[in-house]
Amino acid sequence: MSECIKVKQDQMPAVGFGLWKIAKQDTAEMVRQAILAGYRHLDSAADYGNEAEAGDGIRQAIEQGLCTRDELWVTSKLWNTFHRPEHVREACEKSLSDLGLDYLDLYLVHFPISLKYVPIDQRYPPEWLFDPEADNPTMEIDPVALSDTWQAMEELVDAGLVRQIGVCNYNSALLHDLMAYARIKPAMLQIESHPYLTQERLIRLASHYELAVTAFSPLGAGSYIELDMASEQESVLNQPVVRRIADRLQRSPAQVVLRWGVQRGTAVIPKTSRVERLSENINVFDFELGDDDMAAISALNQNRRFNDPGAFCEQAFGCFYPIYD
């Protein structure tokens, strides 16, 4: 299995460093340490609130000769409040400025959810609530056709601000629709996928459309426990089958699960705030899982989605807004 996956005419490292929920004060050094450990793929987003700090880490790494800009693959994402075509370039340029970059390798529509615009100078990142200071703060939908947003994304490619564009959190129906109207076809589908949510049909459809796939939350519940969106008991790393394979191969359970992810052809973007985990997570290319191991891990599927707007939007933001059936 290659250490890169093909993204149209480009090659993207199959293991990236995910920046979601990395504390601002830790981000610059964690990015620098990730690059030092061999990462050349960074997965960021406006909504993570740490792009300026990530940019500082990138700058330090380049200044210290750890890498060049051309060796890095940097992904960012268009937030929900910037879906109107007149705001798409503004959002992209803000991410570029914060990251200290002239271009993005990949820019993704973060969710197929369009929220009312919040000016950058008023609140950034805007997050989900339209007015957090309101008596009853809620997220407020601003209906914008996804095709309008996509056309503005295409214009970013035309302008040289981004090299590839794609989508996150799309379902099969939205992919079919997107492929029908896209002038510049999407290069990437980023989705939640792990042994509890294998998404085999959606990944197969992406392959049919020649979209690469990146799996976020590739280790499952870990990032959601502190948000009360998952329990410790739901960790796939504690599954007996994963532990047996890890013991036999003398690897960590996390390495086994990440290897399962890349061996099925997806990129993975594990997040960690611990420097010692960086090397562990990227060192998954000097061993392979057998067919029986792959099947046993895939058999853990429960269609368990941790990142589901149909659940958390209503619970946290006062608006029922499912995007998955």
Can you lay out the helices and strands and say which pair or pack?
Blueprint: E1 4-7, E2 10-13, E3 17-18, H1 24-36, E4 41-43, H2 51-63, E5 73-78, H3 85-99, E6 104-109, H4 146-158, E7 162-168, H5 172-181, E8 188-192, H6 200-208, E9 212-216, H7 222-225, H8 240-249, H9 253-263, E10 267-268, H10 275-282, H11 291-298, H12 309-317
Parallel strand pairs: 3-4, 4-5, 5-6, 6-7, 7-8, 8-9, 9-10
Antiparallel strand pairs: 1-2
Helix pairs in contact: 1-2, 2-3, 3-4, 8-9
Based on the model shown, name its key terms.
TIM Barrel; eight-stranded parallel β-sheet; alpha/beta; two-stranded antiparallel ribbon; 325 residues
